[in-house]
Amino acid sequence: MKKITATLLSLFVITAVTAQTAIKLEEVSKHIGDSVTVCGKVAGMRYFENSKNKPTFLNIGANHPNQSLTVVIWETARSLFTSKVEDLMDKEICITGRIILYKERPEIIIERPDQIVVQ
Predict the structure, then answer these.
(1) Is residue 66 part of a domain?
(2) Taking the mean position of all CA atoms in its chain, how far away is CA 34?
(3) Structural domain of residue 39, as residue ranges?
(4) Can you give the pTM of this predicted structure?
């Protein structure tokens, strides 16, 4: 009985820790440090293939420098996508991840393709 209780408690804790809060795009700056799911339109995109780690930046909500959120996809994550990242342009997507600040702007760094879902 103790094993069952311990197993159920472990599963509950794991589920609670990995749960994501759904927020509106306008609320991203209020959730710095939080793991969230946020949706918005990819308004701009830039791939720096000649830069270190070959980052791709997706501007969500508006084009740079007025974007509400920047999504960063490093080369290691980009190589895991089965379709072209460029196909996300002008699409409504939902992004799941932790919001951080970079140069006072909110961003989410993508580590796996399943963090982005096309609506």
Answers:
(1) yes
(2) 11
(3) 21-118
(4) 0.83
